[in-house]
UniProtKB/TrEMBL annotation:
GO molecular function, one term: N-acetylglucosamine-6-phosphate deacetylase activity
Name of the protein this chain belongs to: N-acetylglucosamine-6-phosphate deacetylase
InterPro entries: Amidohydro-rel, GlcNAc_6-P_deAcase, Metal-dep_hydrolase_composite, Metal_Hydrolase
Annotated positions binding substrate: A137, N215, A216, R223, H247, L303, A304, G305
Classification lineage: Bacteria, Bacillati, Bacillota, Bacilli, Bacillales
Keywords: Carbohydrate metabolism, Hydrolase, Metal-binding
Family: Belongs to the metallo-dependent hydrolases superfamily. NagA family.
Binding-site list for Zn(2+): E126, H191, H212
Cofactor needs: a divalent metal cation
Amino acid sequence: MQVINNVKIYTEHAVIERGYVLIDGERIAAVEPGDYAGDCTDVMDGGGHILLPGFIDIHIHGGYGVDTMDADKDALTTLTEGLLSEGTTSFLATTMTEDLSRVKRALDAASAYDGPGAEIIGIHVEGPFISEHKVGAQNPDYVRRPTVELIEELQRSARGKIKIMTIAPEVEGAMDVIREKHEDIIFSLGHTVATFDELNEAAAAGAAHITHLYNAATPFEHREPGAFGAAWLNDGLKTECIVDGIHSHPAAVKIAYRLKGRDRFMVITDAMRAKGMPDGDYELGGQRVIKKGGKAVLASGTLAGSILKMNDALRNFMAYTGETLDNAWRVVSYNQAVALGMQQDIGSIKAGKYADLVLVDHELNVLTAVKKGYMKLIKN
């Protein structure tokens, strides 16, 4: 048994101003108010700091010098251990539009990984089934048209662990794929030139998410609301957003959150290998990326993912929207768990769930991360 005592705990239904969490092995045994008075000798004093559920990043390519597309166990270990330092305890390893043989190698490596640090709970395939007219930082040479057979082939390479797939609904074959496979994979609409009506049609067919809102999609216009308008108004589409102040203006984040509401908005990092690294040259999807001045861009100036950390994203989100932590913690944890159908095990602090926790100070600096009961001290 382990105890985290003297912490302010954010749960699904209430905030416990001073309480403790009892951990039995990998899972939470109890969440109680007051000070722990039992006979467990492994007691950590939380110092009156804040205890949140571990963060869940459903769209992240890499960080700390490595990338999912490296398809390498040591690289994945570097990434998973690095993510704990920002409070992320679970994530979807995200692939890029690349040669299919390389994508399959990455799927195989990520799905087979069982190492320390944050847990790979599935895979997000971002491309190659996107529009060549909205590739963003992806390589247009490898854009493909989707078929059921090809998606099933990728899923076999991933041992059935593809959870989310970004797709442009207007490209040939996309709507057929969405209709046939949406019960097996969450289709996220992005890298698209689809109209407002086309996105709503895709949602009716079974698409359920929007990939990095405001980036690589048709903008809002008053006579053609575009992808952004559909994302705002369609309650069937949960929306992910890179909250770094670079990919989207703070006011745009506030608008999206106000329209989507507390339960349909999810913060992501979309981070690449330059996160946590010094300024310099890096790589994303076979293309050169330059990290300088707090952002990462291709040589053309196109944004190339982010270098955002999840605790910074939560801090930004609260500053941009004015939301309090009472609700804000959900956009980095609970909403993602619900979207993935994993809320019975992760996403909130509750007896019976995995002990995936993050202890932060009142400025949201990460002090300690806990993954299935394993504690890692981040900052003294």
